[in-house]
Every structure is written in C-alpha cells, then in structure tokens.
Hints:
This protein is of the alpha+beta class. It folds into two domains: 18-77, Arc Repressor Mutant, subunit A; 89-165, Glutaredoxin (3-Layer(aba) Sandwich). It has helices at 18-31, 38-49, 54-63, 68-77, 97-101, 104-115, 157-165, and strands spanning 89-94, 121-122, 128-133, 144-147, 150-153. A hairpin with a 5-residue loop joins β2 (121-122) and β3 (128-133). α1 runs antiparallel to α2 and α3 (54-63) crosses α4. The model is unreliable at 1-13 (pLDDT under 50).
Amino acid sequence: MMNEEKGPTQTLAGQIPPEQWRKIDEIIDRYKHKEGTLIPVLKETQEVVGYLPREVQHYIARHMKLDPSQVFGVVTFYSLFTMTPRGRHTVRVCMGTACYVRGGQAILDLLKKELNIGVNQTTPDFRYTLEVINCPGTCGLAPIICVDEDVFGIPEPPKALEILKEYA
C-alpha cells in the first residue's frame, strides 16, 4: 500500500493557521480596490491554502465586499478551483482512446487499489490526488500518467507504482 505516512500535511477547514490568514489578507489588500480581481484573489489564495473551503470563500467575500454567492459561483464554475483538500501530487491517468486501448484502465485500477482511493479523491495523508484525463496529446507514449506536470509512458501497470515512489 502506498499511503503509509500518517497525519495530514495540509490543513482542514477550521484549522487554517494564522500565517495563512495573514497571507490571504495580503492577497486581498493587493486587489480589493481593483475591479474584476476575484479570480486572481482566489487563485493566489488557493496556492496558499491548497483549496478554497467555504470559510475562506466567505472571508474573501466579506473583505472584498462581495456576496458570498458570487465567490461560490466562480469557485464552482472554474475547474481551476477546488473546495476539497488535494494531495501534494496530482496523479492523472489518461483514458483517451490510445491510452485506454493500450492499458490505461489497468493502470487506473492498480492505482485505485494501491492508493486505496477512487477517482477525484485524495489519499488520507494528502500525498496524492487521483484524476482521469482525456488525451494530453502524448499518444505516442500511450498509456501515460501525469504526476503534477511530468508525463510518463507506462509500458506495464506496475511501472506506475515505481514512478509514484519517486514523489513520496
């Protein structure tokens, strides 16, 4: 099993440390007097906290003098934003045609089993988030996985586990 490490490495809603709140304040202060800056505020805040829990959305809304529904609408509309904690590393398995035909499903099944999570879930230690993608344009390497921004051709499913160990 890949998720041996205990304890979260990210904070959960209600447990955001004071230094992160200070950084959020700095972000808001840089943008609050400019029109149309909600997306940059959300993006930078997500980089600080790792995700955008409701309490952070309400805080941003209050300090930018916006309705909380406006903030929530932007967060839920754009796939760039997430309301759930994510792993330090995002593992994406391609299920496009070339990857699927060449064994993408077997890779996905193995990763789900070894990480003990489903698609769009994060390991309890916040090490990995598992996602499915469709064709990042690397069909010549099929099947592939992407770990963060790195792309790997996977000749056999166990190779995916070897690669993840490099990101532990």
